[in-house]
Specification:
This protein is an alpha+beta fold. It is built from four helices and ten strands. A hairpin with a 2-residue loop joins β1 and β2.
């Protein structure tokens, strides 16, 4: 299996070099092809990972998914017209993984419907395991350049739209939906 993984990494790198040699625009995200798969009780949400924007955050999400960290975790804060937030094993919005916090990887990439960003405290370098998915183009616009973008929903956004909403103002969800299983493909 290890030699197969090494071969696949080599083949992916070779494809990027070949594309560059022929002037074909291929981003590192497209070349890597990594996608985060979130299994909800209603179906599958597919997120294209963006290591070209946030390599440290993407690596963290992949690591946590491989450890099963996100399996069974609640969507603890869901605000109509804004976003759905998850990634806290305590379900309170106050928890994270045992790994150290990450430095900000802010970019001018605009927040819009389906953008996946790293949740954090007031400290720009406090992102850890929590993340959110924007519901529409307007609700998250003010986050651009202030929160790390690390992914984009490419399939299943209609399922994200159905995640149970929280109380007005706080977004706290009484009986929250959960991520049943989270994997990387």
């Amino acid at each position: 299996m290890r030699s197969m993984n090494r071969f696949l990494r080599f083949a992916s790198a070779a494809a990027v070099v070949t594309a560059m040699a022929f002037g074909v625009g291929v981003t590192s995200a497209e070349a890597a092809g990594d996608k985060l798969i979130i299994q909800l009780n209603s179906g599958k949400v597919v997120i294209k990972l963006r290591p070209d924007l946030a390599p440290k955050h993407v690596e963290r999400v992949k690591t946590l998914a491989a450890q099963g960290f996100y399996d069974g975790v609640k969507w603890h804060r869901v605000m109509e017209g804004f976003m759905a937030q998850t990634g806290d094993p305590t379900g309170t919005g106050m928890g994270g993984s045992k790994l150290p916090d990450l430095p900000a990887e802010f970019t001018p990439e605009p927040y819009k419907r389906g953008t996946v960003g790293a949740a954090r405290t007031q400290d720009p370098d406090s992102a850890n395991s929590q993340f959110f998915i924007c519901f529409d183009d307007n609700g998250c616009r003010g986050l651009t350049g202030q929160y790390t973008v690390w992914g984009e929903v490419v399939d299943g956004m209609e399922l994200v739209d159905k995640i149970k909403r929280g109380a007005p103002g706080s977004g706290t969800v009484a009986n929250p939906d959960v991520m049943e299983k989270v994997t990387v493909e």
